[in-house]
Amino acid sequence: MAKWIVGSAWPYVNAVPHLGNLIGSILSADVFARFLRLMDEDVVAVSGSDEHGTPIEVEARKRGMEPKELTDKMHNYVKSLFERFEIAFDNYTRTHNDVHIKFVQETFMKIYENGYVFTKDLLMPYCLKDEMFLPDRFVTGTCPYCGAKGARGDQCDFCGKLLDPVDLIDPKCSLCGSRPTWRKTKHFFFDLPKAAKGLDQWIKESDLPENVKNTTLHWLKEGLTPRAITRDNKWGIPAPFPGAEGKTIYVWFEAVLGYLSAVKELDVKNGTNLFEYFWKDQSSRPVYFIGKDNIPFHSIILPALLRATGEEYPLPYNISATEYLMYEGKKFSKSRRIGVWIDEALKLVPEPDYWRFALIRMRPEDRDTNFTWSEFYRIVNSELNDDIGNFAHRVLTLIKRKLNGNVNGKIDEEIARKIEELHDKYVKAMYQVRMKEATNYLLEMARLGNKYLNEKEPWKLLKCCPEKASDVLYTSLYILREIALHLAPFAPASAQRLWEMLGEEGDVNSKGTLAKEHSRPPKNEIGEPKPLFKKLPEEFSDPNYVEGLLQEIREEVEKERPIPFFT
Q1: Known Pfam families for this protein (predicted)?
Q2: Which residue numbers in the chain have pLDDT < 50?
Q3: Which of 61, 112, 344, 474 is 20 to 30 A from 220 via CA?
Q4: Beta strand 132-133 with 139-142: parallel, antiparallel or unpaired?
Q5: Residues 342 and 81 sit within 8 Å (Cβ to Cβ)
Q6: Burial of 26 by CB count in 10 Å (0-12 exposed, 13-18 middle, 19+ buried)?
């Protein structure tokens, strides 16, 4: 049994996450953590709202409110949406909390005292009209690498290059649009080349995914440069260094430390010792769920920061960096209103398990994947309803109607062998964080059950050979029981309903259930059969129809948001 630390990239709370954000980090992390718990592993799963930095400060200024007022409202709203999606982290917290702030300041003081921080004077854009320096997103301009307009002072969203404000062509203040002047200001730098020494060897020898390895080695080959730790904006964690008054920690440097501080916060709240247990053990396995654009922050900057503290923290065991989820062939875009945001999704189709399962089935594990309404419709109606739900309904109603809900028999050995093979493949894929692949084996179990039922025809056997019919139905219950166990990480509420219909007791989502209950025979007496899923209307396969529905509900959803972002 290993110790697992599961971390999801912290959603930035300047807006509601869309479906691509959900599958790229939060949902994937939750599914993996649920699987580990079911396998009786020791796991702590954490994430939270990333609420500091210039984007929030810019947004708050534009709305005439304080940054904390904005993040308070958005954090509570987004957290409630995740709860509706059945996301079950051990701690879903936020960066503006006392434990995180203290931990970040203490960590950077260790890094400072160990000789990895130095100061340097920089020429930074200064807005005469707003009377302030313009760090990061306070300044926009043309990207010097790809020529895209609207690049920010920290990164170009079009080509992905990390930038400094001085790199931008034709820079402008993002608040008033005026051209800034340049003034000298002192900043504190993290000596990344020094702290990251030897990381290339670790990357080469690791079992990290190929896209993570390739991106990281490309960065290392191009050469690392020191990165500025501090910013001149007000909204953030005050820099703890001597002479750093009025400066805050760059949001990316402090956010990645949230994976550690969130566990420490659990100890503070509950009087536990989880931080020592998980984070001070070199054999622990940290697994991070992120989008591919965040790879360097997790494969280079976070390991370098952890090394620079002098503490014996475990380096990443796996970094699951998904490719992009497109929307009907286009990139999700708030400004162009392209895509579906998670509060809209729940208004459109209120069953969270449908979204959870469908998004995992479309998870962009190896390449960019296209979310389409026709595919969502197919997954819900064909895979969930027909393959799994229909098999369950056929078996359970037959037992209830013909045998008064009670059946006994022998499990078909050939079926049991095939289920065991599918279970082994499923478990292997899940440990490798290939969740989309794992759902293939789950669906194979259901299709095996349907094929077995169709071939054996127990409704006919009941008339002539009741003992054989009982064996077939009992074997079918065995398959259903395995389906419930393996469905639990993806669709926990539906798995629980199936579990109860099978006459099983307790929560199928409890720690150790899959490890302890797999391959056991089913109960003899079942519960009351009810439809497990229901089909979507045929019109849901037509994107124009669904877009029309979205337009109808979007105004209603916008009114429910604490901070409207389409109006």
Answers
A1: Anticodon_3, tRNA-synt_1g
A2: none
A3: 112
A4: unpaired
A5: yes
A6: buried
The H or E element that residue 125 is part of is strand 117-127
The per-residue pLDDT for range 296-340, each reduced to its tens digit, is 999 999 999 999 999 999 999 999 999 999 999 999 887 778 899
Task: Name the token pair of 550.
Answer: 């979205």
**CATH, domain 3-105+251-342, list 3.40.50.720, 3.40.1390.20, 3.30.420.110, 3.40.50.620:** 3.40.50.620
Q: Which residue has the tokens 């309903």?
A: 497
Q: What is the pLDDT of residue 164?
A: 82
Instruction: Look up the CATH number of domain 114-249.
Output: 2.170.220.10
CA 54 to chain centre: 23
Tell me, yes or no, if the two domains 114-249 and 372-517 fold the same way: no
**159 belongs to an annotated ligand binding site:** yes
pLDDT in tens, 132-178: 888 777 899 999 999 999 898 888 878 878 788 888 999 999 888 99
- On whether 173 is known to bind a ligand per the annotation, the reply is no
Location of structure tokens 């900043």 = 187
Query: At residue 523, what are phi and psi to the nearest 5 degrees?
Result: -70, 160
What does the alpha-carbon distance between residue 313 and residue 310 come to, in Å, rounded to a whole number? 9
* Fold category of 372-517 in CATH: Isoleucyl-tRNA Synthetase; Domain 1 (1.10.730)
pLDDT of residue 137: 75
Q: What is the pLDDT of residue 567?
A: 59
CB environment 313-342: b (16+ within 10 A), e (fewer): bbbbbbbbbbbbbbbeeeebeeeeeebbbb
Enumerate the domain spans of the chain.
3-105+251-342, 114-249, 372-517
Q: CB under 8 Å to 456, separation ≥6 — which residues?
A: 472
Q: CB within 8 A of 437, min separation 6: which ones?
A: 365, 429
Residue 221 CB partners (closer than 8 Å, separation 6+)? none
Count other C-beta atoms under 10 Å from residue 53's C-beta: 27
**Among the listed residues 40, 2, 4, 26, the one whose alpha carbon sits nearest the alpha carbon of residue 509:** 40
| Separation between Cα atoms, residue 141 and residue 148, nearest integer Å | 8
156 belongs to an annotated ligand binding site: yes
Cα gap 535→390, rounded to integer Å: 11
